[in-house]
Amino acid sequence: MASVRAASRLLSKRVLSKTTPVPAAAVQGSRNFHFSIYGKKKSASVSDNISTQYPVVDHEFDAVVVGAGGAGLRAAFGLSEAGFNTACITKLFPTRSHTVAAQGGINAALGNMEGDDWRWHFYDTVKGSDWLGDQDAIHYMTEQAPAAVVELENFGMPFSRTEDGKIYQRAFGGQSLKYGKGGQAHRCCCVADRTGHSLLHTLYGRSLRYDTSYFVEYFALDLLMEDGECKGVIALCMEDGSIHRFRAKNTVIATGGYGRTYFSCTSAHTSTGDGNAMVTRAGLPCQDLEFVQFHPTGIYGAGCLITEGCRGEGGILINSEGERFMERYAPNAKDLASRDVVSRSMTIEIREGRGVGPEKDHVYLQLHHLPPQQLAARLPGISETAMIFAGVDVTKEPIPVLPTVHYNMGGVPTNYKGQVITHTKGEDKVVPGLYACGEAACASVHGANRLGANSLLDLVVFGRACALTIAEENKPGETLSPLKPSAGEESVANLDKLRFANGSMRTSEIRLNMQKTMQAHAAVFRTGSVLKEGCDKMDAIYQTMEELKTFDRGIVWNTDLVETLELQNLMLNAVQTIHSAEQRKESRGAHAREDFKDRVDEYDYSKPLQGQEAKPYDEHWRKHTMSYVDPKTGKVTLEYRPVIDHSLDEQDCAHVPPAIRSY
Amino acid sequence: MLSAAIAKRLVTGLCQGAWRPAVTGGLVSSRSYRGEAPEDTRGDLIEIPLPPWEEKPGEPTDIKRRRLLYESRKRGMLENCILLSLFAKRYLNTMSESQLLQYDRLINEPSNDWDIYYWATEAQPTPEVYQGEVMDMLKEFTKNRDQEQRLDAPNLEYLDKESQ
């Protein structure tokens, strides 16, 4: 059959001998590097068990990582280093993952700029999460942070240094000393201004030495689940349209966030929530999807991010009256208050009529009061972005900005070890064979709101945690449990259906409808009636997926098909986000409701606890949302799971009891 | 001791690394926020080289265009997604073979997506290996002399032959 011949041609092309030397021109110094990007230790085999129209190749690995951003690469590297035969499937070349956009840095209590203690970082993160974060996971992350940064340094990441040669650390929003009482902390470590890129470059480069098998420009379609256990992943190879089933005892999801459900977001067009959707289609829950972080300063319209560093250098936010309004909302931190506080303040100003522009629908970020030399030396790239996308000269005019979707706190629920969990009969239960890390996961370290520079830390610590947990509980080369020969056939059928879809609505139309609805109904400020209307609209838009029309019938590099698959994934994320937001009748962290302005905890923490009676679990909102979707009907089901309030070691680091969150 | 080793590597890198962007004296990273952080030593780029980009021999031109379309639309950050997908919409289907090769190298070889953005906006000089017709087209395109609104990447409908 032509398809089998094509597949075997494809196989022989791919398997590179491990001892093939690299051409001399590329050799740096006198070292020889062996690159076997598609090298496999065991041979892959072609099968026609699930489709005779698509060549299907079956692979066996010890572990499969989906996604090659910061978290995915750290997991893949850790697993390969531990001797596991690891595959990393990615729809983008690894250094082009969205991690490369990361501007801030990595928080770690190294204490290089002033005395520091990871327990203060722990406190800041718990407070930042508005007490929705699981304190055991936060304990794990903040305690491991200094070791994680030193480890990265040893891998070769060239952190910026102070004059004494120690790692330079800068200030970032929400970081304080002495449990909030000691002023601004400086604990963000960076590699000049390309921390994200350096992380990717370093991890990718190192992982190749351990012979990780990368499957680049493969689009992961679904998880292969059997009897509630994850046995691998099925993916589409974009280069030749073949289907690949990766069987492995351990699957790690590190697919990033889903900013593209909204019309205005700072994310690349690749942030489509593929991992969350795969987990949803497998019948597993996603956690806390309603918590979407809005970065205060995205360029009005395009959404491109203007870094928090601007405000760190003295940039200020002003309204139509020219007032520095943050002084009113956060008297101490002012423009450097936590992101959700700043976003909410900006939105209130706009809603109260003090917005700028012809439609009074945004505010200004002013930089022209700063000395031009400072602007040139410390914020040079801002001028380009402001000019190209907003047409503004920052030395003369302020930049129009608006809170823009930036990060998804929610995702696939895991415990502090990175294992995916479900919550049944009042207990957390591990899903065998499945792990998640990075933005795709919800450990939950960020709770209801993420602090800047904690995300890169999250990637590295939990990417490593997944690798460590897998290494603890498994050995390389273990035999795989049997898998039904027909596993994955629904994914192929879905692919085929989309490829030949001939309804009445184009992918771009449905996508725009979804994005505009989410932007109008589930953005920074939310209120009951608007959310309800949004839920109904989203449900209707979900149904229109039946009317999809694609135009590209090819199978090789079919971008239309890939964007349609991504739309399916985005839809699942969007409906869960808006339904969870509509149900949650309180304001917490990034989820701010006009009709329920306060946090609804088990006690009222603004008053002394003595004499108060704890509200029953059903009546308060300090709990995680667990959402499920029936992919056929689009119906969302919501359940809840309690927050973990104890740290990993109460003696070493006492948990932080809830309190009112003010800066 | 460390800096001597790095300096030596820098020199060998300069001489040998034809595929690596040229290091200009006093390299200023024109990124969004530098704060007080000292210069970027680029230690990771020097010590950990990635597999060099290779041209795909025997790839039919129409397949190459389809691949480059996907690779233009899916980038590491929003700025490049918008810029390169608009650029691809305008130019990709009419590029000649040699232009396609230049473009392929430009968008696939650099490891840091931000570099492509800085070269296109002329915030940093374009390394010699990437200079050429396509880079000039990209720089001119980025200037946006017609001042069209560039608020988002275009959808794919322009490729649908039926609707034309």
From TrEMBL, chain A:
Cofactor(s) the protein needs: FAD
Entry annotation: catalytic residues: R339 (proton acceptor)
Residues that hold FAD according to the record: 67-72, 90-105, 274, 439, 455-456
Domain FAD-dependent oxidoreductase 2 FAD-binding span(s) in chain numbering: 62-456
Keyword tags: Electron transport, FAD, Flavoprotein, Membrane, Mitochondrion, Mitochondrion inner membrane, Oxidoreductase, Transit peptide, Transport, Tricarboxylic acid cycle
Record note on cofactor: Flavinylated by SdhE, about 5% flavinylation occurs in the absence of SdhE.
Binding, substrate: H295, T307, H406, R450
Catalytic activity: a ubiquinone + succinate = a ubiquinol + fumarate; a quinone + succinate = fumarate + a quinol; (S)-malate + a quinone = enol-oxaloacetate + a quinol; (R)-malate + a quinone = enol-oxaloacetate + a quinol
Matches recorded under SUPFAM superfamilies: FAD/NAD(P)-binding domain, Succinate dehydrogenase/fumarate reductase flavoprotein C-terminal domain, Succinate dehydrogenase/fumarate reductase flavoprotein, catalytic domain
InterPro entries found in the cross-reference section: FAD-dep_OxRdtase_2_FAD-bd, FAD/NAD-bd_sf, FRD_SDH_FAD_BS, Fum_R/Succ_DH_flav-like_C_sf, Fum_Rdtase/Succ_DH_flav-like_C, SdhA/FrdA/AprA, Succ_DH/fumarate_Rdtase_cat_sf, Succ_DH_flav_su_fwd
Membrane topology category: Peripheral membrane protein
Chief subcellular location: mitochondrion
List of residues that carry Tele-8alpha-FAD histidine: H98
Any Pfam family the entry gives: Succ_DH_flav_C
Domain Fumarate reductase/succinate dehydrogenase flavoprotein-like C-terminal intervals: 511-663
Subcellular location per the Swiss-Prot or TrEMBL entry: Mitochondrion inner membrane
EC number(s) recorded for this UniProt protein: 1.3.5.1
GO CC, one annotated term: mitochondrial inner membrane
BP terms from Gene Ontology: mitochondrial electron transport, succinate to ubiquinone; tricarboxylic acid cycle
Enzyme superclass (EC): oxidoreductase
Pathway linked to the protein: Carbohydrate metabolism; tricarboxylic acid cycle; fumarate from succinate (eukaryal route): step 1/1
Family: Belongs to the FAD-dependent oxidoreductase 2 family. FRD/SDH subfamily.
NCBIfam families: sdhA_forward, sdhA_frdA_Gneg
Stated role: Flavoprotein (FP) subunit of succinate dehydrogenase (SDH) that is involved in complex II of the mitochondrial electron transport chain and is responsible for transferring electrons from succinate to ubiquinone (coenzyme Q).
Record-given protein name: Succinate dehydrogenase [ubiquinone] flavoprotein subunit, mitochondrial
Lineage summary: Eukaryota, Metazoa, Chordata, Craniata, Vertebrata
UniProtKB/TrEMBL annotation, chain B:
Keyword list, A-Z: Chaperone, Mitochondrion
A Gene Ontology cellular-component term: mitochondrial matrix
Keyword Mitochondrion attached: yes
Pfam families according to UniProt: Sdh5
Subcellular location: Mitochondrion matrix
Annotated region described as Disordered, given as residue ranges: 145-164
Record-linked SUPFAM superfamilies: YgfY-like
BP GO annotations: mitochondrial electron transport, succinate to ubiquinone; mitochondrial respiratory chain complex II assembly; negative regulation of canonical Wnt signaling pathway; negative regulation of epithelial to mesenchymal transition; tricarboxylic acid cycle
Major localisation: mitochondrion
Coiled-coil residue spans: none
Domain of life according to the entry: Eukaryota
UniProt-listed PANTHER family: PROTEIN EMI5 HOMOLOG, MITOCHONDRIAL (PTHR12469), SUCCINATE DEHYDROGENASE ASSEMBLY FACTOR 2, MITOCHONDRIAL (PTHR12469:SF2)
Family statement drawn from the similarity comment of this UniProt entry: Belongs to the SDHAF2 family.
UniProt subunit comment: Interacts with SDHA within the SDH catalytic dimer.
Function per UniProt: Plays an essential role in the assembly of succinate dehydrogenase (SDH), an enzyme complex (also referred to as respiratory complex II) that is a component of both the tricarboxylic acid (TCA) cycle and the mitochondrial electron transport chain, and which couples the oxidation of succinate to fumarate with the reduction of ubiquinone (coenzyme Q) to ubiquinol. Required for flavinylation (covalent attachment of FAD) of the flavoprotein subunit SDHA of the SDH catalytic dimer.
Protein name per Swiss-Prot or TrEMBL: Succinate dehydrogenase assembly factor 2, mitochondrial
Organism: Labrus bergylta
